[in-house]
UniProtKB/TrEMBL annotation:
This is histidine kinase. Keywords: ATP-binding, Coiled coil, Kinase, Membrane, Nucleotide-binding, Transferase, Transmembrane, Transmembrane helix, Two-component regulatory system. Its EC number is 2.7.13.3. The chain crosses the membrane at residues 30-47. The lineage of its organism: Bacteria, Bacillati, Bacillota, Clostridia, Eubacteriales. GO terms for biological process: phosphorelay signal transduction system. Residues 164-198 form a coiled coil. One of its GO terms (molecular function) is ATP binding. It catalyses: ATP + protein L-histidine = ADP + protein N-phospho-L-histidine. PANTHER family: NITRATE/NITRITE SENSOR PROTEIN NARX-RELATED, NITRATE_NITRITE SENSOR PROTEIN NARQ. Residues 283-355 form the Histidine kinase/HSP90-like ATPase domain.
Amino acid sequence: MAVMIPLLFSVSQADPDNIGDAFLLDAPWLIFAAAIFLAAVHFAIALPREYRRKKNELSPFSIKEATDKLPMGICFADPNGRIILCNNRMRRLSFALCDHELQIKSDMENALSAPDRSVTVKNDCYILPDKTVWQFRTQNITVDSDDRWQQITAHNVTELYNGCQKQEEINEELAEVNRKLRKMYARMENDVKEKESLDLKVYIHDTIGRSLLTIRDIIDSGEDTERKLGALQNAIGMLASNRVTSVSTMDEVKRTAQQLGVAVKIDGYLPRDTAAEELTVAAAKECVTNCIKHADGNEVYIRIAQRGERYDVTITNNGKIPTEPIKEGSGLSTLRRSIESSGGEMHISHNPRFALLITIPAKEISL
């Protein structure tokens, strides 16, 4: 086409008096236009066909183009260690590792053994400044029956590496949780043993206290002696046996107090078989014992009121008014520890009259 256009231009500029150009002047313009059109059609068909042929033909250029499209880095070294093919990905990785292009196989070996300071190596993973993680592999391949050729590949393992790191963090967190759980279980075991010991001490304290009060009542008054002796023998028998049971309901507290000559009057209600009932029963037993022992009273009043998620329990008696603040003995001290360990509070008042005030959570505290 480039030849035809100047030719056409020269024909248009020809001198009609020049006999040498007569054959051009006599030719119709349509012939030249047709020639130009045919040339354009030829090139339009031939160029794509030639491009497809070059693309489908196996050649060094097509091989290099194919390797450049791979997501991995790859290069090949001949038996003499010379790099004969290296795709763009591997070339960029070599610049990141050693700041120059690979020429021989030992260049890659040196780059992997002593990479640039900006590259972090963990196990067989290379973490580049752009936070991508790569693994390199070398293997022998056979070319023309010669197995000394080598293929070096680089694989992007960023997602796998980050996943492993995350899993390690999770494992460390689980190990810490497991350690805390073991510590908590050990503490729970100690707490259970301490609670069992405390319950036993409270039970023994209450039983001995009731026994002593019964003995004093027998000495002071001869009324209903047989019944009182039976209660005393029952208490001594339970202490001597291997099976220790404790008063666990308010009704049993009332019956036991009645045997000792004390009337227990209750205003309010507590759910059965709850920590609140257990603590209130323990407080009532202690107050019945102290009413007889210290206040010379014969009535104990218990008022229970629910306030939101807590119970307010007030215990008083009709005995003598204390003249000084109450000193907590082993019974009250043990009761305080039990209440406070359950998340409650305990207060003792002596003026204008004795009163034991406790606040107990309506729901048990979870460990």
